[in-house]
Structures are given as structure tokens and as C-alpha cells.
Amino acid sequence: MQKPGLPEGTRDFGPEQSRKRNYIFDTIRAVFIKFGFQPLETPAMENLSTLTGKYGDEGDQLLFKILNNGDFLQKADPDALEARDSARLASSISKRGLRYDLTVPFARFVVMNRHALTFPFKRYQVQPVWRADRPQKGRYREFYQCDVDVIGSDSLLYEAELVQIYDEAFADLQLPVEIRINNRKILYGIAEVAGITDRFTDMTVAIDKLDKIGFDGVRKELSDRGIPAAAVATIEKILSASDLEALQPVFAASETGKQGLEELEQVFRYLEKVPLRNEVRFDITLARGLSYYTGCIFEVLAKGVKMGSIGGGGRYADLTGVFGMPGLSGVGVSFGADRIYDVLDMENLFPDALTESVRILFAAFDEATHLYAFECVSAVRAAGIPADLYPTPGKLKKPFDYAAKCNIPNVAIIGETEMQERTVTVKNQQSGEQKSMSLDELLQYLSGH
Question: Which domain holds residue 39?
Fold first, then answer.
């Protein structure tokens, strides 16, 4: 007999875990709606032509590819097959892939529906994504993203709004975070000053690993990528700058770098006007590896917890251009729901009430009282209160054990007397208190507990 198992990097979620995850989704979704964003869903799979080339070389390697229907080898590239060249072979046996993120499918949607949309278009999306990464703590092959994007405006107001969304959502989750912000134009300015604009991507990929491998590791990676030692020294010196003001003289000869500074200063001017409950700071070492970012970039870290980023995003000037709609700027951020779950769980930050689903369990002694119990549980449900009925009448030990194991706080006992008097006897599982009450009194009791 085959032993069942899960694909590596995926997880099941039982009732308790699902309630906790829905708490995260509902909390974040409520903030999205408050800021005027509209819901959107896209398919789990996209054409590979939609996905490839949007995430950089490293991202392309992490795409899950779906084999073509039927005899997929019939149309396989024979030369690639004979040479065992998997990269060339893939394009002839796979035309579709699982989405890597929600931003590129969003851009594809905008282009396909541009005549029906009003710009700027603000959307939120809560769906799973897939990456063929090596599973480890906080990193999964299937995970949910909670994305919020606005497309069709260059206004830096939206960068400030996204910081507010991060701040409010994590405050509502009672999870203290640090919100980091940088600008890709500042990073390009570093490449200009160092004289390596032709190696900009190599530089940003290396800098993006700074928190994992340190300056020594970044220095080695830059050198391994063929960047001269003098340029590496310049980059390291600039990265030691701690604030925007210190960068003004550094970018005197870089128009792109100066523009990045001006954009960040404008974002911080917006944020000075509103109260924030979490720390927001400029971080010049923040790079964000995805190649489509062109302006402000964001990253969120949970304070006091060893975990990677639990949120990130940025401005993309022309993501829709590759789909035939150039010049449409957008900006967005994502919440890493699975990592947020892990942090809340580790820090015991989930509300206790989430362990309760059903508020009361009805239990009856015989078939006649079971019918009355069914009438009562239906009335409680009609009042919007989660309730359940133990399926078989008889001795009460089994329903009480069931209620204890399922964290059901109240048990309603239905016997001949209760049926005749149109009442119920309710026992509170925590206090042990037992009381007879009418159905109306029961609804009042449950509404107050």
C-alpha cells in the first residue's frame, strides 16, 4: 500500500491553522478595502511567455513549468533531447507555468482589460504562488501572497499610502515591524558613480544578499562577477551612508541618483503628515532582486524574530510595456502571509478567540429530543451564531468529550423536561456553571459570550 505524503515545500492546514490564516487574510484585506482597492483573481497557471524574463535569470530558474497535454515528447526539440539540454528542451514540451508572483499576472490582466478599466486602477489580490526554491525555514514552494497595487499614476502619494497600509495592517495584527525603503534610482546612481552601469544587475543581485552574507560575501560576489576592485571599494563606501542628506554630495554627478533621493524625500514628506505606529527608515542596502523595479522599493522585517522579509514591493515604470502597453507606471507591495503566520505563531500573537469556532454543542437523550435539539440548533444558527448538534442521541459522555476536544465552550443538554418546557440546559465548559433557559435567553447568553 502506498504511503501518502506531501510534495516538499507544501503544507496542509487543519481547522485551527486555517482559522489563523483566515484571521491574517481578513485583517489585511480589511485594510486594503479601507484604502480604496478592489479585488482581483487570476489563474494559477499562466503562459510561460507571460512569466519568463520578468524576474531576472535567478527568478526564471525558479518557475514551475507544466508539461504540455498528451504526448508532450511528440513535439519535443529532438536536438535538445539528444543533447540532454533541459533549458532548450523545456520550451518545446512546456508552454505554461505556475505563477511566480501576483504582479506580472496583474500587469497581463491590465493590458488585456485596459479598455474596461479606469486609471489609476487600484487592486488587491490574495492567492497562492509557486516557486521551485529549496525549502527551508520560512521559505516554501507553495505560499500565499496578499498583494496590493495601483497602476496608471506616477504620483508618489501611492508610495506613502503603501507604507501606511503596511503600518496599519501590522499594527492591527499586533506585530511590531520595521519598514525599510530605498529607491532603485539610488542604486543605479551608485553604479554610475562606481563606473559600472553595464553591470548594474550584477551589482544589485549581490547587494540584495548583504543581510545573508555580509560585506565580505558581497565583496567576493562582486569580484567574482568581474567588477573591478576600485568599483567594489566605491560601492562599499557609498553603502555605509546612513541617511539621504549624506548622499547629496555623492550623487552630484549622477542625475539618476539625485532623482532617487528627491523621490524618497517626497515620500517622507507625505509620511511626516500622518502618525505611524511602526518604524519606517531609509536603507541604502535594500536592493530587491526582481529586475522590474525602477523606483521606490520596500521591505518589511518582524522585530525581534529571526525570519526573512515578511513583505516587500516597489515601483515599476513599464511592466505592462512587454505586453504591448508602454508607459503605464505602477507601484505595489506584497504581504508574505505564510511567514507572517509563522511569526505570529512563534510569538503567540494570535487572539485566543480564534481557537473557538462552534459556540455551543447541542446534545439529546433520545430520538424525540434530538428532533427538538435540531430545531434549537437551527434557531441559533439563524441568529448568526455558530452552533452544532451531536449526531447521535444517548448518554452525554461522548458529546461532552467531543466538545472538550473541539474547544466548544458551551453544551446544551436536551431532555424530556427541556422539550416539554421549550427550554435548554446550558453548561459552560470552563466555569462548570449549569443553567436552564428559554431559547430567547440562550440567544442573549451566546451573544454576550
Answer: 15-63+100-346
